[in-house]
Write a structure and sequence with these properties.
Layout: E1 11-15, H1 20-31, E2 35-40, H2 43-55, E3 59-64, H3 70-83, E4 88-91, H4 107-135, E5 138-143, H5 156-176, E6 181-188, H6 211-222, E7 232-235
Parallel strand pairs: 1-2, 1-4, 2-3, 4-5, 5-6, 6-7
Helix pairs in contact: 1-6, 3-4, 4-5
Length: 241
């Protein structure tokens, strides 16, 4: 047995896997032997990431749909579970609006942000947790943000959604751990991605975290021994040299 393939035989769902943290997580879990189901709205970019994983020797499949649409989430979950279990769910997808203060944000943009950043993780947990409970194992890993704990001028809705995600998932962890299903939160600071550029002003004395760094943390969480779990990981950049 290849001991480097510690997730062999497991199936992992990764949302927002067409770029940034999601793509890095999908690559890392596939390298550990998991069959990865990648999801995002951008079908072309999602297909490119999936093909790159397969070319590197991994196992992956692409599912393009909109996480803001309840029916599309349900259809995806049904398809995914028909093909096999979901052992690992990584709720990574997120959108942000950093263009102005909260009182200038239109309700439709607010609703879509909450639908993707907060409601979709709930719907995916609702879809996959019952099968994890039946199996007596599973891990739900949520990519949150240090924005949930710190003031984010012009990003209040994003910060609020991430704070809501934290509160929701730490309580879900208590509900599920009696079934040997683990729930974890990863809360990074500024990450070097297209999305992360919305939070950084380019003048910080701190360095930025790489998407691959977050992928390593997700991989660590996914490989924990079954009798314990890490509930929250706060990830801060080191000082620039």
């Amino acid at each position: 047995m290849d001991t480097s393939k510690k997730l062999a035989g497991q199936r992992a769902v990764v949302t927002g896997a067409n770029r940034g943290i999601g793509a890095a997580v999908a690559h890392r879990l596939a390298a550990l032997g998991a069959h990865v189901l990648l999801t995002a709205r951008d079908a072309d970019r999602l297909r490119a990431v999936t093909e790159a994983i397969v070319a590197a020797g991994g196992s992956a499949e692409a599912h393009a749909f909109d996480l803001a649409e309840t029916a599309q989430i349900a259809a995806f979950a049904q398809t995914a579970l028909r093909s096999g279990p979901c052992n690992i769910l990584v709720n990574n997808a997120g959108i942000g609006r950093f263009g102005g203060p909260l009182h200038t944000m239109d309700p439709d943009s607010f609703d879509r942000l909450m639908a993707v950043n907060l409601r979709a993780p709930y719907l995916l947990l609702r879809a996959f947790a019952p099968s994890m409970i039946a199996a007596g194992s599973g891990h739900i890993i949520n990519i949150s943000s240090l924005a949930s704990r710190n003031p984010v001028p012009n990003g209040a809705a994003y910060a609020g959604a991430k704070a809501g995600l934290n509160g929701m998932m730490v309580s879900a962890a208590e509900e599920l751990r009696q079934h040997q299903v683990r729930v974890s939160l990863v809360e990074p600071g500024s990450v070097r991605t297209e999305f992360g550029a919305g939070l950084a002003d380019g003048k910080s004395p701190l360095g930025a975290i790489a998407a691959e760094d977050i992928a390593e943390i997700v991989a660590f969480l996914a490989q924990q021994p079954p009798q314990c779990f890490v509930s929250e990981v706060l990830v801060r950049p080191t000082l620039k040299k």
